[in-house]
Design brief:
It contains three helices and two strands, in the order ααββα. By secondary structure, it is mainly alpha-helical. The chain has a two-stranded antiparallel ribbon with strand order 1-2. Strand 1 and strand 2 form a beta hairpin. Helix 1 packs across helix 3. The longest helix is centred in the C-terminal third of the chain and has 15 residues.
């Protein structure tokens, strides 16, 4: 299983890093794994979810 840092995940999903953090914290869009050092680790499925959320937002959807 491939794991990505938040910066790489954000770039692959096409959203800013801060947006990923907000969606994770405020809206619980996803729950990434953590490294032994506590860093977020995103899977391919997490990136797909971020892309889907971005597409919804681009179509006018607002998380609540």
């Amino acid at each position: 299983m491939q794991s990505y840092s938040i910066g790489v995940a954000a770039r692959l999903a096409g959203v800013p890093v801060e947006t990923v953090r907000i969606w994770e914290r405020r809206y619980e869009v996803l729950r990434p794994g953590r490294s032994s050092g506590g860093h977020r680790l995103y899977s391919d499925a997490d990136i797909d979810l971020l892309r889907a959320a971005r597409a919804l937002v681009e179509r006018g959807w607002r998380p609540n």
